[in-house]
């Protein structure tokens, strides 16, 4: 399905693209394409920061800031190179805005929870439209072209589906049901540590994480001939 009769809404295919196995395969088969490897590495880290059930908030912040520094260093390198342009050699402006927002909002949410909801765990994967997408996907199984009146009529069936049958079927069955749409993971709790998700880094610790992220990105980019310190 990743090659023939491609499902363009297959979230699992997108997740596999940023997996460690895919990155290792790329580095082994195409060692000369270091730019793609860097893109998969840093963006995959950002997505892990939002989706992982096991990372501490400090680790999430480190991944988010590392991705942010990489994106801005990459853009600065494009701007400084006489033969490169953002239009041909960089991601779209919209993608850059989205990724930067993902980096900044993750850090902002950690700080907001620390200040206003310190006793409640911060579950970043729930701060998304995924539950809404799930509901709409189920509604389209009940009626492809539904309106608001249909939505109200289907509420009892929708509740039964979400709380009943869909909750007890296997992951493979879920995959088959969602093959033409999204793959929802917001209810997955394997390996979750709620106590760790209420441990908040201080401002000083966040600053140290920022310094560490900058140093790591600078060292990695230096391996591919990009002097980040000279551009930022």
Kindly describe this structure:
- The chain is mainly alpha-helical and 232 residues long.
- It folds into two domains: 11-121 and 200-231, no CATH class; 129-185, no CATH class.
- Helices cover 66% and strands 0% of the residues.
- It contains eleven helices and no strands.
- The protein has helices at 11-17, 20-29, 34-51, 57-80, 86-89, 93-116, 130-142, 148-168, 171-177, 203-223, 228-231.
- Helix 2 runs antiparallel to helix 3 (34-51) and helix 3 runs parallel beside helix 6.
- The longest helix has 24 residues, at 57-80.
- The chain is globular and about 60 Å long.
- The protein starts with 10 loop residues before the first helix and ends with a helix.
Observed structural traits:
232 residues; mainly alpha; 2 domains; 11 helices; globular
TL;DR?
With 232 residues, the protein is mainly alpha-helical. It has helices at residues 11-17, 20-29, 34-51, 57-80, 86-89, 93-116, 130-142, 148-168, 171-177, 203-223, 228-231.
Globally, the shape reads: globular
Reported for the largest beta sheet, the result is: none
Strand content: under 5%
Mean pLDDT: 83
For the termini, the CA-CA separation is 42 Å
Query: Total domains, how many?
Result: 2
Helix fraction by DSSP (H/I, runs of at least 4): 55-70%
Number of strands: 0
Low-confidence stretches: 178-184
Which structural category fits the helices and strands? mainly alpha
- The gyration radius over C-alpha positions equals 21 Å
Q: From N to C, what is the helix and strand string? A: HHHHHHHHHHH
Number of helices: 11
């Amino acid at each position: 399905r990743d090659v023939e009769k491609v499902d363009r809404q297959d979230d699992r295919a997108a997740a596999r693209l940023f997996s460690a196995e895919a990155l290792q395969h790329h580095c082994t088969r195409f060692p000369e394409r270091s730019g793609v490897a860097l893109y998969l590495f840093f963006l995959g880290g950002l997505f892990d920061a939002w989706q992982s059930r096991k990372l501490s908030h400090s680790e999430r912040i480190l991944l988010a800031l590392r991705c942010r520094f990489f994106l801005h260093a990459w853009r600065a390198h494009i701007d400084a190179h006489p033969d490169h342009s953002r239009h041909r050699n960089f991601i779209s402006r919209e993608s850059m805005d989205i990724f930067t927002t993902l980096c900044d909002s993750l850090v902002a949410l950690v700080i907001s929870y620390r200040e206003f909801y310190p006793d409640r765990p911060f579950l970043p994967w729930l701060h998304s439209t995924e539950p809404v997408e799930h509901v709409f996907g189920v509604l389209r199984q009940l009626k492809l072209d539904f309106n608001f009146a249909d939505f109200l009529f289907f509420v009892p069936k929708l509740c039964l589906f979400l709380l009943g049958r869909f909750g007890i079927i296997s992951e493979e069955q879920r995959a088959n049901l969602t093959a033409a749409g999204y793959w929802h993971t917001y209810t997955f709790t394997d390996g979750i540590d709620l106590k760790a998700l209420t441990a908040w880094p201080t401002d000083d610790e966040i600053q140290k994480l920022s310094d560490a992220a900058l140093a790591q990105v600078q060292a990695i980019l230096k391996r591919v001939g990009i002097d980040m310190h000279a551009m930022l």
